[in-house]
Design goal:
CATH superfamily: Chloramphenicol acetyltransferase-like domain
Structural class: alpha+beta
Radius of gyration: 20 Å
Distance between the termini: 39 Å
CATH topology: Chloramphenicol Acetyltransferase
Number of strands: 11
Number of domains: 1
Helix content: 25-40%
Low-confidence stretches: none
Number of helices: 8
Largest sheet: 8 strands, mixed
Shape: globular
Order of helices and strands: EHEHHEEEEEHHHHEEEEH
Length: about 300
């Protein structure tokens, strides 16, 4: 049985007020500090973004590297690009818990997978953990390791087994268990095993419904857990644009839709991050090497312990 363990960042020591899954963000605009007390729910704080991206360059890149990166797909490139954005825009990896802002001390994606493309096909989730310095090679390898355990029909990962166990609970016990887990999560005492397998405790929740021929959707955030970004990938489509010369150009694209928690950063920060994502996707070669530097959330006031 595979052991789930997040790759925790070693930037700061844990102090009073910090959590096992993040450091308290104390250096923040006063308005942002009080917003979580008024907008107490993620459902109250949802903001919707969308970005249509051209995939012509991505498909050419995949074709060029299909030999040295077996199994490479558009989804891998998009995930690697998001990781690269988070490495430069760390506020995206924040979360709100009990009216306070925290900088997450790990980077993970929860990814929905369907074991077979049928109405009755089993659905499960994988939760690969990454580092901000990961390259596209690392991303493909880590996702493939999770796939190999979870994808075969009839197989069960640890999340499947725990969910099955909860399914045997009677209603009253199930309600009590969920209430207790939610409360423990709020105060930072959630059992580590639950946190490590929970898809709701991640940097980004991703669904690739384009793989079943559907257009992307806006999917709500979850109250349980600490995930602040839900991302949906849509199907490929042909689009047309008019160049400055007046010539009509056709290109392939997919729609990315995001539902995000507005309490972790402002709209300008989100919009700038989406522009960076698009730039990286149009030049995916840069994902083959680590970023020149990783920017750490400057809202955490503690002294860095990973630097001399």
């Amino acid at each position: 049985m595979k052991k789930y363990k997040a790759n925790k960042f070693r930037y700061f020591r844990r102090h009073i007020g910090d959590r096992y899954d993040g450091w308290r963000v104390r250096k923040v605009d006063p308005v942002f500090a009080v917003i979580p007390y008024f907008l107490r729910s993620r459902l109250d704080s949802q903001v919707f973004f969308e970005e249509r991206i051209s995939i012509d360059n991505i498909e050419a890149f995949i074709k060029e590297h299909k030999e040295d990166i077996p199994g490479l797909s558009i989804m891998h490139v998009i995930i690697a690009s998001m990781i690269r954005v988070v490495s430069q825009r760390p506020n995206l990896n924040r979360f709100i818990m009990w009216n306070k802002i925290f900088a997450r001390n790990y980077l993970s994606f929860s990814i929905v997978i369907k074991r077979s493309l049928t109405d009755d096909g089993e659905e499960t989730l994988i939760k690969p953990n990454f580092m901000p310095t990961d390259t596209l090679y690392d991303v493909v390898r880590k996702i493939q390791e999770e796939y190999d355990e979870s994808l075969p029909e009839g197989s069960q990962n640890l999340l499947d087994r725990v969910s099955k166990l909860f399914g045997f609970f009677p209603d009253f016990l199930m309600r009590s268990a969920v209430f207790t887990l939610t409360w423990l999560d709020k105060i930072g005492l959630l059992p580590r095993t639950i946190e490590q397998i929970s898809p709701w405790h991640s940097s980004v929740f991703l669904t690739n419904i384009g793989s079943i021929g559907a257009e992307s959707v806006y999917h709500h955030l979850y109250e349980f857990g600490n995930c602040s970004i839900f991302m949906a990938m849509g199907k490929k489509s042909q689009r047309h644009t008019v160049l400055r010369s007046g010539e009509m150009k056709q290109y392939k694209s997919i729609m990315l839709r995001f539902v995000v928690d507005e309490r972790i950063c402002d709209g300008f920060y989100y919009a700038s991050s989406l522009r960076m994502l698009n730039r990286i996707l149009q030049n995916p070669e840069q994902l083959l090497t680590p970023p020149e530097q990783v920017i750490v959330d400057d809202g955490v006031k503690w002294k860095r312990i990973d630097q001399k």
